[in-house]
Give the backbone structure.
Amino acid sequence: MSQAVRVTVWNENLHETMFEEIRAIYPEGIHGCIAGFLKDAGYDVKTATLQEAEHGLTQDVLERTDVLIWWGHMAHHKVEDAVVDRVHQRVLEGMGLIVLHSGHASKIMRKLCGTSSELLRWREAGEKEILWVVDPAHPIAEGLKDRIELSHEEMYGETFIIPKPDDIVFISWFEGGEVFRSGVTYTRGRGKVFYFRPGHESFPTYFNKDVQHVIVNAVRWAAPRAMPQVTLGEIKEPIMPLANPTHNVIAGLHEKID
């Protein structure tokens, strides 16, 4: 990698500031935890939060972001539409987007998917979750075993109203018997989008090494690739009229009509 992928980790940063029990789990915030292991993986990482001006996602910040990670839960409605439109445009231009946990209901995910994504089941019971790797050949699953086991997580269960994904990488099973498409990808314009379900704020999910491995892989996968630029000066072959008899007959008819 000639230049480190530039990542911005965005987080509401509300649970950590409002609730002592959440702050005890994530003393540097969820964004701080994620930024930490991404820096260890060699990425160029910055953070942004809801409380900052323009939620920390100015045009300048987004133009210097290759992959944006989005964690939101209790304040989707507080995200300004102008910022959502700005993020949406950057995704279409090629910026990668990784949406985590309750970010499925964020304004940006809804705008990209065209659905509300709300008709899912959920239960905060701290039960066991198994994320089955159902597409082991996918780059996001590289280096994983056949499953990721989390001893305590919030349950999300189908039906999950989303467009048909490009890829389904993970499907979750919970102790109550529910299943959920917990890792899905989309392409929007030139941008790659990955939704990854685990990460409820009450549990130390983002300290799990396998979960970290998924997010590290996802950043690499979602990072934009350089597009070759071709100018007319680089075209070696001359542009010639079609040597097609039918085309010549039609051209002759046009000449007679004229």
Remarks:
- Helices lie at 15-18, 20-25, 29-40, 59-63, 81-93, 107-113, 209-222, 245-257.
- The first helix runs from residue 15 to 18.
- The chain has a mean pLDDT of 89.
